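RETRY 2/3 - previous attempt timed out on the joint model. Re-submitting the same 920-residue input unchanged.
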Amino acid sequence: MHATILTRRRRLRGFQANTIAIVAIVMIGAITLTAVLAPVLISQSANSPDTAAILQGPSAEHWLGTDNLGRDVLARVLYATRLSLLLALGATAIAGSCGILIGSLPAVLGRAGGRAVTTALNMAVAFPGLLLVLFLAVIFGVGAQGAMLAVGFAQAPFFARITQTLTASVAGKDYVAAAKLLGVGPARILGRYVLPNVAEPLLVNLSVTIGQSLLVFSGLSFLGLGVQSPDYDWGRMLGEGLTRIYSAPAAALAPGIAVVIAGLAFNLAGDGLAKSVGSGNARLATARPVFRQRAQSATAPGPHADLVLSVRNLEVRFPARSSSGWVRAVNGVDLSVSRGEAVGVVGESGSGKSLMTAAAVRMLPYPGLASADELAFDGVDLRGPDSPALQRHLGTGISMIFQDPMNALNPSLRVGHQVTEAPRFHRRLSRTQAKRFAIALLDALRIPRPELRAGQYPHEYSGGMRQRSVIAMGLSVTPQLIVADEPTTALDVTVQRQTLQILKQAQHDTGAAILFISHDLAVVAQLCDRVLVMYAGEIVEELPVTRLSAAAHPYTRALLAASPDMSTGRGAPLASIPGVPPQLTDERRGCSFAPRCRFATEECRTQTPPTVELDEGRRVACFHPQPATTSLTQGAHT
Amino acid sequence: MITSEVPTSVPLALEVRELDVRFGRGRRATSAVQNVSLSIPRGALLGLVGESGSGKSTLARAVAGLVRPTHGDILIHGIPADRQRSRRGHPGPLQMVFQDPSSSLNPRLTVGQAIADALPRRSMSSATRWAEVLRLLDVVSLHRALADRRPADLSGGQRQRVAIARGLAPRPSVLVCDEITSALDVSVQGAILNLIADLRRELALTILFISHNLAVVRHVSDEIAVMHQGALVEIGEAESVLRSPQHEYTRSLVAAVPDPSDPIRPQPSSGGFEFLVDSPIP
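RETRY 2/3 succeeded.
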C-alpha cells in the first residue's frame, strides 16, 4: 500500500517572517548597545582635538581617518548614535502620540465632529511632508530641539490618518455596538474596545516611522537646520564630511552607512512585526507527515466503468497552527460517485467535508497534503504529477461552484463573455457562436431577457442570478461532474429553491453527476440520491436519501433531531449534541463521536468502529447502530 | 442590583409606530424600513422573518437605538425609547444579541471582563460584580472556569452563550435577538434555541427574535411578522401565519422552505440543458 503526496509544500512564510524579525532584533540590539556605551567608552577619542593628527586618512590607529581637528571619524560616528537615535525616537513619540490622539477622535466624537476631524486630516495629509518639515523647522527654530518638534509634528497627520482608518474599521464592529448599548462610555470604548484591537498595525507603523525619522533628521542636519555645533549627529557629520568627499571619502560615507543600517533595522523590525501579525504567529511544522497504515476496508468499491469519481482511503493533512504536529482534516475516507448521480456530503463546520471534496478533485489549498490509495476521475488516475493533459481532463470534466458567486465572477467582464470563456478556449468558438451559446445558456437558466443580460456586468445581477451564471460557467464545458460547495448557503430560501431546481435540471438533461456539499440536511434530502455524513474528518454514515429518517448512526440522528422543520413540536426542547468536536491534532482512539454520544460504551472509546454495510446502500461506522424506532427527541440536552 | 422601572399599567413591552428608516439624502436615498408598526405584549416572543434586504436587521438596530429612525415612534413600556437609552454606566432596558458572536465579542477581553463591562459600575463592589458574572455564566449553562478565557478559546456555541449572558447582565426587560443562530452549527443551534425558551420562562423576558429561517422562527415564536422590501406584509399568531398565509409573499416564503420529504424533480418538458449534450455548439 503506498501513499502519494499530491500537493508539495512551498516555502514557509512563517519561517521568513522569523528570519527577518531575528535579523532586525540583532541589529536594533547592536545599535542600542552602541548608543548606550559609546559616549561612555570613546568620548575621549571622539571629542578631544588632536592637533598632531589632523585630516589623516585611514590607518591602523584611526580606521576611518580623522577630521579637521584630528578626531577619530569612527569614534565620532559611534558617538553620534545616541543623539541620532534619541532624536528619531523623540520625533516618533511626538508623531505617534499626537497622531493616535487626533486619529481616534472621530471614533469618539459624534458624526459632525468626526467628519470635521477627518476633513482636517485629509487636508493635512495632502500637504507635502518634506515641505511641512522645513516649514515647521523654521518656525520651531534651528537646533536639535526644534528639528525634533518639526519632524514629529510633520509626521503626526500621517499617523492620525492611519489611526483614523484603523479605528473606523473597528468602530463598525458589533462588539462596539454592543458596548454602546450596554452604556459603556466613549473613553472606555476607545481604550478598551477600539485601540487594543488596532495596536498591532500601529506598532508596525511606529517602528517604520523611527527609521523614517532617522533619515529625515539626517537630511535636516545636513541642510544645517538640525543639530548645531558643538553637538553632532550623523546628518551633520555627513554634511561636513561631504566637503572632503574626494580627499577622504570615509568621513562622508561612514555616517551615511550608519544612517542606512539604522534605518534598515527599524524598517525590518516593522516588516517582521507585520508578517508575524499577519500570519497569526504561525509556527508551521517542519516534520514530514507519517501515514498510518490502515486495514483495507471490506466494502471498498473497486474501479468501475460506471463510476465518475472513485476515491479510496483519502487522507488530508495540514500543518498545525499551534504546535508542531499535523491536523488530520480528512481521515481515510472512501468516496464514489456514479455517472449521473447526485451525492450529498453533510457535516458541520470543521468536519472536513469541503477539504475532502477539494482533495478528491485535486484542488486542495496550500499547505494541505493529500494521499490516497485510489483517486480516479473518469478513469484517469489523479495522483500523478501535474500535466497539461491532466489539467484539460479536469478542466473540461469537472466544474466547481462555491458559496459566494462574486468570488467566481470577474466584476469587470460581461457575464456573457465569462460564461463562454471555457468553450472559447477549449473548443475555439467564434465570437458569434460564443454569443449565441451564452444566450442559450442564460435562457436555459431561466434568466429573463438573456440577450440583454448577456451584455451586462455581474454587479447588475441579483445574488441568485449571479449564482446561476456561475452554474452556467460550469455547465458550458458539459462536465461529467459538478462539485457544488454550499452553493445556496448565501442565498435566500426562495432563490435557493430556484438554484436547486436548476442544478437538478442540469443533472437530468446533461447526465452530469453532482457532488453537493452542505450543512443543511433538508436541502441535501431534496436534491440528492445518496448522502454521506461526515464527522471529524471521517464518513460516519452513508445512506440513500429515502432512508434518511431511518439513519442508524447516533450523530446523523442527532443532526436530524437538532434542526427544527415546519412540523416539529413547537415549544418542546430541541435535541442538541453536548460537547464539542475532537481536536483533529490528537491521536485518536476509538470512535471520534464517542465523547458526545449517549450510546457510547467502553468499546467505542477504545476501538475504532469499522464501516459495515447494514443493507443495500447503507453503510455505517458505529458499534451501536440505532434501529429506526428510537425516538429522535429523547434525551434532549439543553 | 438594578431593575429597570416598569410601569405596570402598560401591557405592551415594545411598541413600534409608523417607523421609517432612510439611508442617504436626496435622490440617492434608499428606504430600508417603511411605515412599520408592531407591538409585543410583555413576556411574549415575536418572530420577525424576511430575506436579505428586507429591512429586518435595520428595524432591529433602530429599535436598539443603533440607527436613527427618519420617522415614527419606538416605545418601551409606553415610554419613548430615546428617553431610556443607555447612558454612561446606565444600561437601558433593551439589550441586543448579535448574529455572529465572533465579531460581537471583543477579542481582547476575557469572558468575565466582557460580562462585567455590562454590569453597572458605580453601584457594585468588584466582589459583587464577579459573583454576578459567575451567576450569569450559570444562567447560560457555561462552566465558571471559562470566565478567564478569551473568545478565541471558545467554540461558536459557547461564544454565543457569552453574548447572551452579556445581554442579560443589565437585567433588560426586552431582548432583541438578531439572527443569533445563523452563524452556528445545527447541533449547537438547538441548544441556543432551548436556552432562549428557558430564559423567557424564567426571566419573563420580552423578545424580538429575528431570523431568515422560518422553521427556527416557527419553533420559538408566539407571533410571527413577515417583512418584505422594508414593509411589514403580514403579522399574526405563529401557526396561523404559516398554515394559512394571507400575503402572497408569505406564501412563497413558506413554499420555499426545504422539505426533505418533497424532492426536487426535473421538469421533463422544459428541454433546458439538453442542447449542451445534443449539439454542444449552436
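Residues 314 and 372 of chain A are 4 Å apart (CA to CA). Closing ticket.
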